[in-house]
Amino acid sequence: MHQQLSKDTGLSPKPLLQDKLKIFQGVISIFYLVGLVGMSLPMFRDYFQILTPMHLLLNFGILLYFHRGWNIQFLLFLVIGFLLGYGSEVLGVHTGFPFGDYWYGPVLGWQLFEVPLMIGINWLILVYCTGNLLAVKIENDWLAAILGAFMMMLIDVIIEPVAVALDFWQWESDIIPISNFIGWIAVAFIIQLFYRKLKFHKENAISWYLLFNLITFFAVLNFIL
């Protein structure tokens, strides 16, 4: 198919991939910039909060579009990552373990067991993107999983104040407990280890760019909200 494409258009697959990459990078930047403006302005904030689940799905869809080498083990990672991330949140909401006492607002969309399904997608996005950054740099799976978990915890430090301000979730007594960050490291480490141990292609051309925009989005909102 690639050879036929080259003959018919005179273009090789690699430049075509680069063109797609630039287009989707532009889409990501536009969506995050528009979202930043919308969330910053009280008059528009309610409308943009409603769009949050769709924005998460867009991020996830773009990551999957640029993923290469689909196989059974990659699908297994998606299932395990979702179930572990989502399951830990269900456990947390109903027992306080491992994160602390909190509950979800309506912003993140449809809920099952009082936890939005998008939270499972959010865990997958963060594990996949941080895991990708370390995949080609660190050979040791355990070290990569530990570093990936700490990276995710630091990202959560940036996300938490914004998420509370936008009613993604709320904490008991309005205090974010230390147990939340310890719990994040523990759950993230387990999922990161599955990410490393399962055999599938671990390079994604756009994951770092999406992660950069996500972190920038929440970092800027910390100064605005």
Topology diagram in text:
Layout: H1 2-9, H2 13-40, H3 42-50, H4 52-66, H5 72-95, E1 102-104, E2 111-112, E3 115-116, H6 118-135, H7 141-165, E4 169-171, H8 178-197, H9 207-224
Antiparallel strand pairs: 1-4, 2-3
Helix pairs in contact: 2-3, 2-4, 2-9, 4-6, 5-6, 5-8, 6-7, 6-8, 6-9, 7-8, 7-9
Q: What value does the average pLDDT take?
A: 93
The total of helices stands at 9
Strand content: under 5%
Number of domains: 1
**Strands of the largest sheet, in order across it?**
1-4
Backbone structural class? mainly alpha
The residue ranges in which pLDDT falls below 50 over 5 or more consecutive positions are 1-12
Structural commentary:
The structure is a single chain. By secondary structure, the protein is mainly alpha-helical. It has one domain. The chain has nine helices and four strands. The chain has helices at residues 2-9, 13-40, 42-50, 52-66, 72-95, 118-135, 141-165, 178-197, 207-224, and strands at residues 102-104, 111-112, 115-116, 169-171. Strands 1-4 form a two-stranded antiparallel sheet. Strand 2 and strand 3 (115-116) form a beta hairpin. Helix 2 (13-40) packs across helix 3 and helix 2 runs antiparallel to helix 4 (52-66). It is globular, with a radius of gyration of 18 Å. The model is unreliable at 1-12 (pLDDT under 50).
